[in-house]
Amino acid sequence: MKNICDWNNCSKEGNYKAPKEKDNSKNFRLLCLDHVKEFNKNWNYFSGMNDSQIMDFLRSDMTWHKPTQSFSSSDNFFKVLWNNALKDDINKNKFDEQIDNMNRFKFNHNDIKAFSILGIAVGIKWNKIQEKFKKLVKKFHPDMNAGNKKFEDKLKLITLAYTQLKNTYREKIDT
Fold first, then answer.
1. Residue 14: Cβ within 10 Å count
2. In the chain, % of residues over pLDDT 90
3. DSSP code for 143
4. Which of 30, 129, 159, 162 is deepest in the core (most CB within 10 A)?
């Protein structure tokens, strides 16, 4: 069966697909070679769109029009970890009383590994841990390293270590 060109009053064979609408749907019409050339010459996907709509489409086109999770989205693992690390809710008064006694506590394997990742001595005072963490964040932050994934991964590891110690120190001073 022969397909007839879907152009006004054309009786030639329609072998070439042309979109019916601008919605990226699978709907198309079949045109002959002459009419598909004319169609393509006059085709403007963006006709009827304002500049803002065109820019939105182009931005979305960079991710194949698929939803993406930005770093700033609320459920991003690293953002949740980062916010928890920065939230300093340790009871300062109780903490100051107990801090000199930290060396008498036993630290588990994860704590010792966290001290090692941060490059600090086991049982060091909390304010020294905070200072070291801030230095490492400045050193390994992706903005300081042209977005290099290697540094981003290192920063995640540092943040996990800091969070581990923060939780451990909080437990030890609350008991």
1. 21
2. 29
3. G
4. 162
Q: Give the single-character DSSP code of 63.
A: T
Contacts of 145 (CB under 8 A, 6+ apart): 151
Specify the 3-state DSSP secondary structure of 100.
helix
The residues facing 30 across adjacent strands are 17
Q: Which residue has the higher pLDDT, 101 or 2?
A: 2
Q: 3-class DSSP state for residue 29?
A: strand
Tens-place pLDDT, residues 15-52:
999 888 666 667 889 999 999 999 989 888 888 889 99
**CA quadruple 6, 8, 13, 14: dihedral sign:** negative
Amino acid at 128: K
Residues in Cβ contact with 18 at an 8 Å cutoff, skipping those fewer than 6 apart:
28, 29, 30, 31, 36, 39, 40, 43
CB count, 10 Å around CB of 57? 13
pTM check: above 0.85: no
As given in the structure block, the two tokens for residue 76 are 């991003």
Is residue 145 packed enough to be buried (19+ CB in 10 Å), middle (13-18) or exposed (0-12)?
middle
Nearest to 73 by CA among 82, 64, 65: 82
pLDDT tens for 43-90 read: 888 888 899 988 888 888 776 766 655 555 555 666 666 666 666 655
